[in-house]
Design brief:
It is a single chain. The chain is mainly β. The chain has 1 helix and 6 strands. It has one domain (about 1-85). It binds zinc ion.
């Protein structure tokens, strides 16, 4: 797929989340993060995402942080946990 944002086109592989088998979506990381476009699983029912709240150290009970499954196209689609606020 081609992801276009702010005039910058990025060619991305179609990626499927290995945890929930849903298509992952391109997501432009915030400036200063050191990342470009990432592939992220935004499925709120993803088992990886749902199970993530136990893995975050020092997580406050009222925080809504979770870890979404993500891959970095700039790094051979290496998987990592993207800490994100639940929407
Ligand atoms: Zn998933």
């Amino acid at each position: 797929m081609i992801h276009e944002y702010a005039g910058i086109k990025t060619e991305l592989e179609d990626r499927i989340c290995p945890h929930c088998h849903k298509p992952m979506e391109p997501w432009l990381a915030p400036p200063g993060s050191g990342w470009g476009v990432l592939m992220v699983c935004f499925n709120n029912d993803c088992p990886h995402y749902k199970g993530s709240d136990h893995e975050i150290a020092n997580k406050r009970d009222d925080s809504r942080l979770g870890c979404r499954y993500a891959e970095n196209p700039d790094n051979n689609y290496t998987p990592f946990n993207l800490v994100a606020v639940c929407l």
